[in-house]
Specification:
Elements (H helix, E strand, L loop, with lengths): L1 E5 L7 H7 L2 H6 L3 E6 L13 E4 L10 H5 L4 H22 L3 E4 L5 H9 L4 E5 L7 H13 L2 E4 L2 H4 L11 E3 L17 E6 L8 H12 L5 E6 L8 H11 L6 E4 L4 H6 L2 E4 L8 H8 L4 E4 L15 E3 L4 H12 L2 H18 L2 H17 L4 H6 L5
Parallel strand pairs: 1-2, 1-4, 2-3, 4-5, 5-6, 6-7, 8-9, 8-11, 9-10, 11-12, 12-13
């Protein structure tokens, strides 16, 4: 089966990594995977061995009005969009896939191109958009364009229940790689997190919790791995800078490989306000770290509270601080939660299980009867 994955961004972030790292497992079960990439970027390093086409011009489409206003501006982005969509169409015609896999709601425009070319479309839904008319319209568009919607958690799937027929809606959990068991830290205890600096990831909650913890426990360190300066987050980062004040209770390390950090950390926290099914918490669990995370979205499908990790209310810095302090004072519980989480991930959230679920979705898309527009456009596929 020939599958073409169209990515909506070239950064090595969650949605792209979730599919990129599953490609070897897809190959093992008979899927020939190619990728259309909307510009040069670090995700290329995760696509070793794939046939990759970098589209030109780079994707000009903003994912929000603020994104459209980013340089070179709305007018230039609109002018470039026609050429970009033409490059998507050429790439699809060159690959002639059996199925097109669009890796995010943000890739719906590319899904429209694939649909107009007559290809079956599988939409991979990772995110839980904020409530409102934009979310409702986007979900309706997803249901209209996709032959099958693959949600990364039941929490995400529930958003599509009214827009997508049950036979066309599937939940497929993301997988992660088995990791070397994190070393038991000695000396100063370090609490870490991975994610972009943004409101959605609760970076301000992390800083506030760190300030509470370190007011009386200066020996407990906090580190953050992940990029800052994202479009649309400048106001949040200004507020975060004011919250941090003169103190430096959290060390921001920027983007870097996470393996060495996981080995250094004793506790992993994920204070997000919005999550579909985060990879960062799964990777920490795979490394045997105890995880404290917000009880939001699909996180409770990863973590059984008190069994394979700890869940705290969303946005509650006090609760996050209390959970960290409880684990800091109880090494035996840290080890027990970490080991239970590691076992759970190793049996439930694997690339082989993810690939099997995606292949099932591809087959379901192929089994859908062609729509009238597809019959009219069928010649474009040859």
């Amino acid at each position: 089966m020939r599958v073409c994955v169209i990515m909506h961004e070239s950064d090595a972030l969650g949605a792209g990594l979730a599919i990129a790292r599953a490609i070897p497992a897809l190959r093992r079960i008979g899927c020939e995977v190619s990728v259309l990439l909307p510009g040069e970027g670090p995700i290329i390093d995760q696509l070793g061995g794939c046939d990759v086409t970098v589209l030109e011009p780079a994707r000009p489409i903003g994912v929000s009005m603020r994104g459209w206003r980013e340089p070179p501006g709305i007018a230039a982005r609109l002018r470039q969009s026609g050429a970009y969509f033409a490059s998507v169409r050429r790439g699809l015609r060159a690959y002639r896939p059996d199925v097109v896999h669009i890796n995010s709601l943000h890739a719906i425009p590319e899904g429209v191109v694939a649909r107009c070319c007559g290809f079956p479309v599988v939409l991979h839904a990772h995110e839980i958009p904020r409530p409102g008319r934009k979310r409702s319209a986007t979900i309706r568009a997803a249901g209209a364009i996709a032959d099958v919607v693959v949600a990364v958690s039941h929490a995400v799937a529930s958003l599509y229940a009214d827009a997508v027929a049950p036979a066309k809606l599937m939940t497929v959990y993301n997988g992660v790689a088995a990791r070397e068991h994190a070393a038991t830290a000695t000396g100063e205890l370090c609490v870490g997190t991975v994610g972009s600096v943004c409101r959605r990831k609760g970076t301000d909650v992390l800083v506030a919790a760190a300030q509470i913890v370190r007011a009386d426990h200066r020996d407990i360190l906090f580190e953050h791995v992940g990029p800052a300066g994202l479009p649309g987050e400048r106001d949040f980062e200004a507020d975060l800078s004011r919250l941090r004040g003169a103190g430096r209770d959290v060390t921001f390390l920027g983007p870097r490989p996470v393996d060495s950090a996981l080995r250094r950390w004793s506790i992993f926290v994920l204070p997000s306000r919005e999550e579909g099914f985060p990879l960062a918490s799964l990777e920490a669990m795979a490394a045997g770290l105890p995880v404290v995370a917000s009880d939001i979205g699909g996180i409770d499908e990863q973590i059984g509270d008190g069994e394979t990790g700890l869940l705290v209310p969303v946005g509650d810095a006090d609760a996050l601080a209390r959970a960290v302090l409880a684990l800091a004072d109880d090494p035996a519980r840290r080890r027990a939660l970490g080991e239970a989480g590691r076992r759970h991930v190793s049996t439930t959230f694997t690339y082989d299980r993810q690939a099997a679920g995606l292949r099932k979705a591809y087959l379901a898309a192929l089994a859908q009867p062609p729509r009238a527009a597809e019959r009219d456009a069928g010649g474009l596929r040859s």
